[in-house]
Backbone:
């Protein structure tokens, strides 16, 4: 008991006295929460248009960042549409036409299902640490949570956003807000993460809002209904043959 | 024949006012046909010269991966042309971007052009460097649709060669007025050096515009499209317009011929005694028919002469000063100018002369045939038959 | 008095018949040419009307503001009700639905994988409805290079150059890939029913023409349309009428704050066509003026000749004791009558011709190499109010003027001399 108390105190103390931790470590801890070898997510995407709001339900299977397979479940219009991403290639299968169409180049820059996300936004398959150099630039309170403010500057050329700013929960190591900037420093997009819940030993934000800051509108909500970390996903999911099944 | 000509000439000149009225009408029609044709040709010519001046130059040298009709090819359709091949060529680099006037997104085509280029009429000399924003010039149409004026700034978002987003304000330093919508609609022109720097595509070009001194030669990875090929679509429209305007000439000609016909009918009716006299003096009927036909034809010859006397200085003057038209639309896909300089081709003039003379002959001959049926004795008496 | 003149006109054929014929022909030509000029000068505008603007166009306010981006998400909905209302309120207008859309055309290989792709410039017209005038209006059939019009919603016409580039055959299947009005992904297979040539390279590459119902379904625009185009049933654009109709329609929605409320735009208010239209009107005006002038000279000439050749008759009449002014006035009165008769005949003939040319037009596509949709190959006349009286200017005025001029001779010459011309 004494030991436990000692341990606890030392933990608390060490916590309190930590100088801003190294940004890389923060990112690593974030990755521990967010990144898995494989995952299966059932989610809703709420797209608010000028006239109506649509909710698109999909189930995604992902392996690392490189491979993903998504099947749309609702609404009826989208049901049965499947999308396969293997590295930098993207195929879409539509049941109504029974065709597999490959998207490339310019098309990848289009918006996904009318949302504020582009296909390309979903195609990034490197971890943040691989493409950005991070540093802690401050500490703030955000929605009653103490957060580290991280600034990430791209270390490679081929990323969409030259700079990001990330607000990471100091205790849970979950990003709560992210801002994406152009090379010139112009704010382009904002991602707001909320409804952080504990799933197993991870904290995970179940709701994300993506917003294009240059345009008016409410942005796109991405809500996780169900998530499995590190499930076993058979390899055949990530083949073109799976699209037609 | 000579006699017939002399007689016809005397008769016509002798008839005085009547002759000159007919000649006047014919001259008028003759001049009108040439005039209208000249305007239409001038208009077409203008459309062509404007398109050449603003867009086509003496031809385009396109990167082989760039397809002007496929906007998706802009992303990869550019390259560097080796220095020795650059002579007489002016580079244009295309990139896609978006501007955000009043909070809405407008997709645009960014066109980088050399500031000191002289091949195209785009007023690149008006690029003024600005500390805070990228200098840009746009066409009137683009300015209207985006509600931008000279001095306005608007946020531009683009991607560099690696796809990284970048955004910066552009400042509109000039708004140009052009008759060529394809250099105006949805386009923003900026100095190519800026675009190179913005995208990291130093020395890249999507296509080059050739000047008159350019000699086409095979260059690897680049395709030369001559001015003529570029003008193909426009030529088709022009040939279409020409055939539709031919109806106009036919109708104009018809009036003039109506005048000749009218006169012929009347003069044959009135000059029966004269006809009788000719026959009595020993002319064959066909000779008399010939005489009257020549008389009719001579109207057109007189008209040609007078037409030349009036027309040459008039048309020369018009083709030099042009004819002003009120501000015209440029939304039609082909160029239209405010001022049209009529173009008079030699074939047009000779063709019109031939047309007028031949048709006048035919029209004169038709009523004159009646003479052949006249009874000379009755004719001599002047009895109406 | 008039009766006496009538008798003279009817009995002396040389005095009446020929001048009347000449005047009729001249007036008919004037009328026809004027109508033709009005039509020919606006053919580019008509072309715009057929393809893009209609004589009037109904869109939502939001759609209108972003028109160039083909914002189908802002399209009109519940179009059937709107159409019904429009047809009831404006029976003189033929209303049609149009949808324009962008996207990709994807051509599959044998396994159904992508073999080739190209940007699609989609156009949906009311093709299958047998009552629709659209096929005729757009001259689609003439522009088809091979194959035929879509006969079902599952068929489409594609740009000829695109088909050639990918070696597509009629009957082969292609997939349209794009976004619905809600932003969803949409895929639709179409069988190629034919290839079409527009005469503009971009369209020849990427055009895709489908039936409106197919587009509505594939773009989730049930009972929706990007635009409703109205065409005056006379076939000819009249700005005042179109403006009035638009005004009447828009007044109903004046206080509707909804950005998706419909709004009507007359042709002239669209695509910067006002300038072009004014230009065409002016050009037509100038040409008609020139023509009337030329015709006037001809008919003046006719009047003059008619007077000149009757000097001997005047001589006799003077000898019989008629006063010079009386003869002169009789002569002019006669000219007025002849001018009117000729002008009326001529106007009727000319109008008939112009009417024919307005309704059917003269098809010149045979004289041009490639008939395409974007180039007007049917020349149409346009009957405007001015056409009804324009012929009277040369027909009556010029004729009378000519007669007046030649009649002056009556005063100038001695009775004896005039009489002498009898011999």
Residues:
């Amino acid at each position: 008991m004494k030991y436990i108390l000692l341990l606890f105190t030392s933990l608390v103390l060490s916590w309190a006295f930590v100088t801003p931790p190294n940004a890389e470590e923060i990112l690593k801890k974030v990755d521990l929460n967010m990144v898995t070898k494989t995952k299966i997510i059932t989610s809703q995407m709420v797209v608010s248009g000028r006239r109506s709001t649509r909710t698109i339900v999909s189930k995604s299977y992902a392996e690392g960042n490189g491979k993903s397979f998504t099947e749309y479940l609702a609404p009826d219009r989208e049901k049965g549409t499947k999308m396969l991403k293997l590295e930098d290639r993207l195929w879409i299968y539509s049941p109504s036409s029974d065709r597999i169409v490959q998207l490339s180049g310019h098309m990848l820059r289009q918006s996904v299902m009318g949302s504020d996300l582009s296909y390309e936004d979903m195609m990034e398959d490197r971890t943040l640490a691989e493409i950005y150099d991070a540093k802690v630039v401050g500490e703030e309170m955000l929605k009653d949570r103490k957060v580290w403010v991280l600034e990430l500057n791209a270390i490679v050329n081929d990323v969409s956003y030259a700079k990001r700013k990330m607000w990471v929960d100091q205790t849970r190591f979950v990003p709560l807000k992210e801002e994406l900037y152009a090379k010139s420093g112009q704010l382009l997009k904002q991602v707001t993460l909320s409804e952080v819940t504990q799933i197993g030993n991870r904290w995970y934000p179940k709701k994300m809002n993506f917003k294009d800051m240059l345009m008016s509108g409410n942005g796109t909500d991405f809500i996780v209904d169900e998530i499995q970390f590190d499930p076993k996903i058979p390899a055949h999911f990530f083949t073109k043959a799976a699209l037609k099944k | 024949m000579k006699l017939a000509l002399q007689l016809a000439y005397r008769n016509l000149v002798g008839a005085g006012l009547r002759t000159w009225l007919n000649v006047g009408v014919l001259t008028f029609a003759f001049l009108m046909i040439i005039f209208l044709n000249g305007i239409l040709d001038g208009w077409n010519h203008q459309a062509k010269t404007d398109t050449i001046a603003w867009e086509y130059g003496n031809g385009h040298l396109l990167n082989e991966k760039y397809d002007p009709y496929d906007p998706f090819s802009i992303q990869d359709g550019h390259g560097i042309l080796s220095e020795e091949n650059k002579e007489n060529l002016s580079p244009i680099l295309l990139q896609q971007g978006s501007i955000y006037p009043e909070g809405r997104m407008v997709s645009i085509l960014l066109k980088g052009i050399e500031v000191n280029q002289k091949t195209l009429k785009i007023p690149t000399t008006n690029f003024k460097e600005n500390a805070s924003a990228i200098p840009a010039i746009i066409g009137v149409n683009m300015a209207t649709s985006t509600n931008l004026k000279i001095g306005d700034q608007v946020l531009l978002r683009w991607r560099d060669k690696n796809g990284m987003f970048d955004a910066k304000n552009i400042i509109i330093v000039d708004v140009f007025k052009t008759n060529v919508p394809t250099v105006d609609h949805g386009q923003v022109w900026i100095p190519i050096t800026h675009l190179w720097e913005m995208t990291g595509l130093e020395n890249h070009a999507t296509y080059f515009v050739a000047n008159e001194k350019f000699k086409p030669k095979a260059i690897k990875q680049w395709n030369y499209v001559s001015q003529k090929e570029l003008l193909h679509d426009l030529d088709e429209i022009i040939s279409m317009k020409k055939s539709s305007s031919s109806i106009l000439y036919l109708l104009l000609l018809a009036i003039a011929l109506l005048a000749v016909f009218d006169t012929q009918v009347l003069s044959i009716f009135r000059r029966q005694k004269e006809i009788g006299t000719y026959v009595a003096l020993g002319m064959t009927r066909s000779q008399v028919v010939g005489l009257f036909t020549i008389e009719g034809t001579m109207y057109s010859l007189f008209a040609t002469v007078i037409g030349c006397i009036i027309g040459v200085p008039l048309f020369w003057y018009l083709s030099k000063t042009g004819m002003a038209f009120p501000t015209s639309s440029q939304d039609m896909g082909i160029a239209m100018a405010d001022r049209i300089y009529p173009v008079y081709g030699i074939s047009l003039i000779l063709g019109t002369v031939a047309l007028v003379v031949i048709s006048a002959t035919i029209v004169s001959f038709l009523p004159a045939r009646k003479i052949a049926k006249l009874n000379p004795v009755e004719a001599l008496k002047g009895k109406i038959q | 008095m008039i009766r006496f003149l009538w008798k003279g006109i009817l009995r002396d054929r040389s005095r009446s018949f020929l001048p009347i014929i000449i005047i009729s022909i001249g007036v008919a030509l004037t009328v026809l040419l004027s109508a033709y000029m009005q039509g020919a000068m606006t053919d580019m505008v008509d072309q715009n009307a057929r393809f893009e603007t209609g004589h009037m166009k109904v869109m939502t306010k939001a759609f209108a503001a972003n028109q160039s981006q083909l914002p189908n998400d802002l399209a009109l909905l519940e179009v059937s009700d709107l159409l019904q209302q429009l047809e009831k309120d404006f029976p003189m207008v033929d209303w049609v639905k149009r949808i324009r859309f962008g996207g990709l055309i994807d051509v599959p290989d044998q396994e159904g994988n992508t073999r080739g792709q190209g940007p699609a410039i989609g156009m949906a017209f009311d093709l299958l409805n047998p009552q629709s005038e659209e096929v005729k209006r757009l001259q689609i059939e003439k522009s088809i290079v091979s194959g035929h019009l879509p006969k079902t919603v599952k068929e489409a016409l594609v740009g000829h150059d695109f088909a050639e580039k990918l070696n597509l055959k009629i009957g082969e299947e292609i997939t349209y890939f794009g976004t619905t009005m809600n932003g969803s992904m949409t895929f639709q297979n179409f069988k190629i029913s034919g290839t079409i040539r527009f005469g503009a390279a971009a369209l020849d590459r990427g055009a895709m023409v489908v039936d409106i119902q197919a587009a509505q379904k594939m773009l989730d625009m049930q009972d929706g349309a990007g635009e409703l185009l109205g065409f005056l049933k006379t076939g000819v654009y009249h700005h005042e009428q179109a403006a009035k109709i638009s005004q009447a329609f828009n007044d109903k929605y004046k206080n509707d704050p909804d950005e998706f409320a419909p709004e009507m735009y007359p042709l002239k208010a669209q695509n910067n066509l006002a300038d072009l239209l004014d230009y065409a009107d002016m050009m037509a005006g100038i040409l008609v003026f020139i023509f009337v002038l030329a015709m006037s000279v001809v008919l003046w000439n006719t009047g003059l000749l008619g007077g000149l050749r009757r000097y001997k008759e005047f001589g006799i009449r003077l000898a019989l004791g008629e006063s010079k002014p009386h003869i002169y006035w009789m002569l002019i009165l006669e000219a007025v009558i002849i001018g009117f008769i000729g002008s009326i005949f001529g106007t009727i003939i000319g109008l008939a011709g112009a009417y024919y040319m307005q309704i059917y037009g003269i098809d010149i596509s045979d004289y041009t190499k490639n008939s395409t949709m974007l180039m007007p190959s049917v020349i149409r006349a346009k009957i405007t109010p001015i056409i009804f009286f324009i012929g009277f200017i040369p027909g009556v005025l010029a004729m009378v003027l000519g007669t007046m001029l030649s009649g002056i001779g009556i005063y100038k010459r001695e009775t004896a001399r005039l009489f002498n011309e009898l011999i």
Observations:
- The longest helix of chain A spans residues 2-17.
- The CA atoms of residues 88 and 123 of chain A lie 7 Å apart.
